[in-house]
Amino acid sequence: MELSGGMHAVCVTYEAGAIQFEEFPKTKEPAWILGVGYNTVSDRQELQNDISSRLWFTYRKNFTPIGGTGPMSDQGWGCMLRCGQMMVAQALICRHLGRDWRWKPAGYDNDYTKILQLFLDKKDSCYSIHQIAQMGVSGGKSVGQWFGPNTVAQVLKKLALFEDWSSLAIHVAMDNTVIIDDIKKLCRSARQPTPSQVTNSFLHNGVSSEQTSARSRSPLPWQPLMLIIPLRLGLSELNPVYADCLKACFTLRQSLGMIGGKPNHAHYFIGYVGNSLVYLDPHTTQPAVELEGNMPIPDSSFHCSHPSRMNIQDLDPSIALGFFCQDEADFADLCDNLRRLIIGQKTHNAMFEVVQSRPTHWPPYVLPTRPDGTKTDFTSLDYELEGDRQYDSDEEFEIL
User: Fold this and answer.
1) Banded pLDDT at 15 (limits 50, 70, 90)
2) What pLDDT does residue 90 have?
3) Cβ(148)–Cβ(394) below 8 Å
4) Coil, strand, or helix at residue 215?
5) Helix (H) or strand (E) holding 248
6) Which of 211, 223, 361, 382 is the most exposed place for a label (fewest CB within 10 A)?
């Protein structure tokens, strides 16, 4: 399959409504969804409500051309970008609405609407497909090229610097190592917007300049944290030794799930039941949402009531785990549980490490910053994405 401009599709696509979903299994084992456990027999409605409350981002078509002259659809190449959107959207839901928030059709919450606006398919939405694709250009990814899990994590980390309403600090843990001191330094740093950035409306997403300036004078003692851990858990297939630890990550209350997939597919994994991973699939092509005046966002297409499942052993080994910590105590609790439940006593087969200080032979940690005078279409940015190729095995997802 080939898209306009010579771009080759690397993901199987489906038209909306064409996918057949199987019923969620009724088992004695609990189903875990982003840190919450459910009885699959007695809690089916609660389980359903939880899943349908997650924001579901899929391929879209007929949106404004990316970069002005680029593609008008991400069908065939944007699946990992959409998965990254879903993970950061879940972080923002936890940040502003709480993990227990549930979506009600036609029931509009102001903060929920603000979150959704950040992901609409237009250039002035901070986490839009336009911004993610264009930010990827600075990391050597042309618009329309497939991203791997680490690439999309690095791009989201950069974009978060321009979204002041949430003050979300995104940290990408490299080399299988979570460094506590680095994360504390990041989350305790004051985010000081420049004058030009304060005046850009989408940077603070409806928050007035006076409110933004007031917050910059009284910085948060701890910026809410989105921690992303890119991993490679095998060569060409998942090493079975990691399966139980990987599933255990979904039981932590800070869990944002996982992005990854299998050859030709990227998925957003939100939980598991038995040996099956539960995921939201972006491979449905829907029309881009167009807003009319001051009418509410038609949001039903952003929620999926029927998740998909796959055996954990079919998972490609290149993944990225996500966690959200509202405050410093939350982060301390996450580190304790990662050490106790995920790493445990493993010395050779641990998925990653949690250490207090940066290794002495590593270069010093540098806080991410954003330049002054940034245009809202990000065309002036020239970022280098750290470790861009370290965990991304894009060739394993491409049709050869």
Assistant:
1) very low
2) 98
3) yes
4) helix
5) helix 243-249
6) 361
- Based on the residue annotation, tell me whether 281 is a catalytic residue of this protein: yes
Give the rounded distance of the alpha carbon of 295 from its chain centre: 28
Local structure of 88: helix, strand or coil: helix
Structural contact between residues 25 and 295, judged by C-beta atoms closer than 8 angstroms? no
C-alpha distance across the termini of the chain, in Å: 12
Strands 308-311 and 60-61: unpaired
* Run of H or E residues at 196: helix 195-199
Give the predicted TM-score (pTM) of the model. Answer: 0.85
From the number of C-beta atoms within 10 Å of its C-beta (0-12, 13-18, 19+), residue 124 rates as middle
- Burial class of residue 221 in the structure, from the number of CB atoms within 10 Å of its CB (0-12 exposed, 13-18 middle, 19+ buried): exposed
Percent of the chain surpassing pLDDT 90: 64
Give Cβ neighbours of residue 384 (< 8 Å, ≥ 6 apart): 138, 139
The confidence band for 138, taking pLDDT boundaries of 50, 70 and 90, is confident
Question: Is residue 52 a contact partner of residue 303, using CB atoms and an 8 Å limit?
Answer: yes
What one-character DSSP code corresponds to residue 65? P
Token pair 């991410």 is at which residue? 368
**Strand, helix or coil at 253?**
coil
The mean pLDDT value of the chain amounts to 82
Select from 285, 236, 244, 239 the least CA-distant residue to 262: 236
Using DSSP, state whether 180 is helix, strand or coil. Answer: helix
CB 385 within 8 A of CB 249: no
Q: Among this protein's residues, is 394 annotated catalytic?
A: no
Q: Note the helical H segments in 118-173.
A: 129-137, 149-159
Using CA of residue 9, residue 70, residue 142, residue 378, what is the dihedral sign? negative
Of 11, 50, 74, 79, which is the active-site residue? 79
Based on the residue annotation, tell me whether 79 is a catalytic residue of this protein. Answer: yes
Phi first, then psi, for residue 396 (nearest 5°) are -75, -15
Catalytic residue, chosen from 74, 121, 182, 281, is: 281
Q: What are phi and psi of 277, to 5 degrees?
A: -85, 140
258 touches 320 (CB < 8 A):
yes
- Distance CA(393)–CA(146), nearest Å, equals 10
Q: Which residues contact 102 (CB under 8 A, 6 or more apart)?
A: 49, 50, 53
Q: pLDDT-derived band of residue 48, with 50, 70 and 90 as boundaries?
A: very high
DSSP H/E element including 38: strand 36-38
Residue with tokens 């050779």: 348
Spatial separation of the C-alpha atoms in residues 373 and 354, rounded to whole Å: 37
Residue closest to 170 by CA, chosen among 389, 385, 394: 385
